[in-house]
Amino acid sequence: MRNDDVSVRRGSTLYIWTPEDKAFWEKEGEAIAKINLWISVPALFLAFAIWQVWSVVAVSLPALGFLYSTNQLFWLTAVPALSGATLRIFYSFIVPLVGGRRWTAISTASLLVPAVGIGIAVQDPHTPYSTMLILALLCGLGGGNFSSSMANISYFFPKDRKGSALGVNAGLGNLGVSVVQFLSPIVVTVGLLGIFGGEPQTIVRNGAQIQVWTQNAAFIWVPWIAIVAVIAWFAMNDVADAKASFSEQSAIFREPHNWIMCLLYLGTFGSFIGFAAGFPLLVKSQFPSINPLAYAWLGPLVGAVVRPFGGWLADKIGGGPVTMWNFLVMAIAVLGVLYFLPKGTGTLAFPIGPSQGSFTGFFLMFLVLFVTTGIGNGSTFRMIPVIFNELSMRKVAGKDDASRAEAQKEGTVLGAAAVGFAGAFGAYGGFFIPKSYGSSIEATGGPEAALWIFAVFYIVCVAITWWCYARRNASMPC
């Protein structure tokens, strides 16, 4: 079948897809790739919004009459990351089995289940905690989408554009975290959905009774999920060359660089999603006079916005150096957070700093952390496809053009699988960080123990990145 017969048709399989061919890319490849990217972005945005909706809903539950402990509330913010990270393992390999267009539409539509379920459950303060946990676990469907989305988009772009393209997809997708934290406190104050939104709840705020529609925090996303799922089904493309069995893709598990990059991505994206999920409750526990929802959205916003810059910067000067210096700044910023925490609550408090703490300093240090997680997310995801392409090409050094073309195809498939799997591994940070806060507070009286562990981990990541990718004689400079 001729390329002109199929590649120009949207919503169909592309039987010829050669983005490294400059003539093909300029003639039609770039336009098709951009269409798929700009549909993927809102789909991923909605996935992140549903994944992180509990970060704002959990803070509101006590005022609505839900009698949950602080640790139980931290669990509700943490378990979506646990299920999302686990689903990402499977989602990492599903695009070559099902097709990017089909899976984007199906996985986006699946977000309707937790969105509708949460909207119903929060209207009744007698809803069992077990039901809330199940709904929190189902929000992991949004977290899982990241791996399949990133793997899918990586097929569409040439290697010198992958960092930027993946940065745009993930960065604008990550904005769903910020928007859900910014928009939710607004939409719950108005009966936007009329008779379709349910009855309001009455809460006491600043001594006055007010009506809220907490269900809107979930219901507001329902029509957009349906619309984007339909658009994805009819307007995106499946790439025939992206077909590969699980056994073919599983070759990444035998490659040490796969596991190294998983660890580094745990440090960048795991920190981003974990800090985003745990920040509102952390503020509530350490600075009770501060309204956390007034500030929580800013961190994920800056982290998401700078992610494309991290990918672009890595394209220009190399992912290894960018990632290494980025981790060093992250370690320093964690020490800054410790410095500005109130003293006397935790047994592992920072030895110096204001005794009552400083929310301004604390918040600014967290903004630095969010910026660095965003830059690191972009740089690490640029590194992965480059590494696997180089590994495949090294195997055919000195061989004919056909062998090199086949190796390039193999490198693309394995790089996409590794991108997805690293996304799965990294997402576990979204569980461990908020849960670490809760466990640290319960065991020592404050979150300091968890933060000290984070700082040490970032220093370890600095050393690993320098040795493997950033030093002059590194085995895989990138």
Quick summary:
The protein is mostly helical.
- CATH fold type: Growth Hormone, Chain: A
Task: Give the biggest sheet.
Answer: 2 strands, parallel
Q: How many distinct domains?
A: 1
**Low-confidence sequence ranges:** 1-11
CATH architecture designation:
Up-down Bundle
Structural commentary:
Helices cover about 70% and strands about 5% of the residues. With about 475 residues, it is mostly helical. It has a single domain (about 5-470), classed as MFS general substrate transporter like domains (Growth Hormone, Chain: A, Up-down Bundle), CATH 1.20.1250. The strands form two sheets. The protein has a two-stranded parallel ribbon. Strand 2 and strand 3 form a beta hairpin. Helix 2 (about 20-50) runs antiparallel to helix 9, helix 4 (about 70-90) packs parallel to helix 8 (about 130-140) and helix 19 (about 430-445) packs antiparallel against helix 20. The longest helix has about 35 residues, at about 360-395. Mean pLDDT is about 85; it is low at about 1-10.
Name the features.
Growth Hormone, Chain: A, mainly alpha, two-stranded antiparallel ribbon, 478 residues
